[in-house]
Amino acid sequence: MSLRIAELPSPNVEPRPEGIAIDTLILHYTGMQSGIEAIARLRDPAAVVSSHYVVEEDGEVFRLVPEALKARHAGVSHWRGKSALNENSIGIEIVNPGHEWGYRHFPAMQMAAVADLCLEILARHPIPARNVVGHSDVSPDRKQDPGEFFDWRGLAANGIGLWPEVVSLAEGDPLELLGAIGYRTDLPLAILVTAFQRHWRPERVDGIADPATLARMLAVVRLTQA
Question: How many CA atoms within 13 Å lie on the side-chain side of 119?
Fold first, then answer.
């Protein structure tokens, strides 16, 4: 049974460039005080922002932009050598007030709907697991979402994205490891490490590449190369 999706079209769309394959899935939080407020902004022509989908805290899913069209969700972004990721990505906004308005854990019903939606998207597009990322991964100097409370591990257990299993500490060049994962490497190291930790070491988000964080980095690199 497919996921039930309500249609709330946004005017903030563009055609995708001809010949561009959809190969990246970017997850966001809305970062506003309510889902209603977030959806209104994503449909406001003056705001010039949008996403393909919005997932409410109760699990309700809305489609704002058809996947065949380009939504304006990623902004200045970079992942695995590609920039301007609106062109080749699908964006999902997940309702959560974010760090500015009282960041909180994502309810189980919401995460279940996110997982179902992601699985449907992945069934339609050849998106590799290494390209299922957060806004903070592709825009680490600007964004924090979906943040350290987001259940990346649970998604990976359902075949969505990557989660490393680490058995020992490690050493290595953090910038080299981060570049191999997909991060741009022309930003301060602490910013990049913080973004990595939000996704893959959420229990410690301090921007320090300690041995345990390096071990996670190395494990993610190995997963991306598997």
Answer: 15
Torsion angles phi and psi, residue 107, rounded to 5:
-60, 155
d(CA 41, CA 188): 32
Q: Which CATH number does the domain housing residue 170 bear?
A: 1.10.101
Active site residues: 93
Q: What's the Cα-to-Cα distance from 209 to each of 65, 172, 220, rounded to whole Å?
A: 38, 10, 14
Tell me the pLDDT tens digit for each residue of 44-90.
999 999 999 999 999 999 999 999 999 999 999 999 999 999 999 99
Q: Could you tell me the two tokens for 198?
A: 């939000």
Q: Is the backbone peptide bond immediately before 146 cis, with ω within 30 degrees of 0?
A: yes
Q: How far apart are CA 185 and CA 214, in angstroms?
A: 16
Which secondary structure element, helix H or strand E, spans residue 191, and what is its range? helix 189-200
Could you tell me if 26 and 134 are in contact, meaning their C-beta atoms sit under 8 angstroms apart? yes
The boundaries of the domain holding residue 204 are: 164-226
Question: 6: which 2 tokens?
Answer: 């309500």
Domains in the chain: how many in total? Answer: 2
